[in-house]
Input
Amino acid sequence: MKRALIISPYFAPSNAADMQRVRMSLPFYREFDWEVEVVCVAEKYTDAVFDYLLNESVPNDIKIHRINALSKKITYKFGLGSIALRSLWHYKAFVNKLLNKEKFDLIFFSTTQFPVCVLGPYWKRKFGIPYVIDIQDPWFTNYYEDKPKHKRPKKYWFSYRLDKYLEPIAMKSVSGLMAVSDAYMEDLTIRYPHLLKVPRATITFGGFKKDLEIASKHNSNFKLSFNKIPDYRHIVYVGRGGFDMQRAVMILMKAFKEGLKSFPEKFKILRFHFIGTSYAPLGSGQKTLLSVAEKLGVGDYVTEQTDRISFYESIYNLQNADALFIPGHEKPAYTASKMYPYIMTEKPIIAVFNLESSAAQSLIACKAGFVADILDFKKSIIEIKFFLKNIAEDKAFEIETDWNEFEQYRAKATTKKQCDLFDDALKIS
Output
């Protein structure tokens, strides 16, 4: 049995999206000859939304090491709130002690808190242990360079320069790369051609049946984030918003506005709910999606709750919707990490993606929802208008998901792909 040490600053019961791959994979690593341990930051040092039911999905025999970090209350005064930077020294000290005592074959960084990945080459030099990095989002990116300041993330000037400096350090001696999108991998190999010789794999997040079972088991503890008026038809999205999601929402809202004009009696019963759209502290998020509807004059039909909700409460809200909406991005690299729980709820799905994205291709291949082309504005508006009309008329949707096709996206199948990559990484080390 080979052993991997997983570095994931956020972990259960944190509701952070970037720890979900590891959490859903933990029950399956041993089936593919890997034993794993996780090193994460202790709850009191994180700034996440917590869902303690997530602990029910973590096997009891998995060892979880929880380390300290600098308090955000202190570092925030100096403009540093990143959990990666606050925990970097503590990661180095703790893992050094662990590796001096125990033997691990591989270190796996699975996080979007990328600065911790610079410890990979350090541990490789010191202990001779290869490392694999999971690229769930772009690390260094020029995407925001031509965007106005109000559309850039907070502290963009600092993070841009930090990422530009740290990424090449981590990539110089990496033994394997995992990414949720082919496009992310292509960008990295253009910047670092030597990565073409490194084992690589595009692996999406998996669908985890146990999550729906846990949500059903505890549904009496949850509340809806929208007012479910019985005579209305509720279309729900749970996930981050942002200016880069506005084009997809614009297409949806324009289709609704045209439908409202053509079939007012039918369309007036539709309500749209965007939930948990901001990573900002509770009560301080900017409503970037509602503003699109307001500009079109249909804001009365839309609610946006910026405050994040717990993971299983998210599933509960999806299960109580009449239909689901998944906004995408113009760039084909974008992939929706929460897409598979959407599919597993077996609700009608409207998605607006670049059709070349892996998310769009997965939905289409599984026949799990309607996918509109974010690059074809006029056609998508016409198609979504028709889809919304069917929802408004409460026509019986027969979900024809191809579950055989979907098997490759389940957590067990995606974990096997991870383990295959780990094995390949060992071969070149």
Remarks:
- The chain has a mean pLDDT of 92.
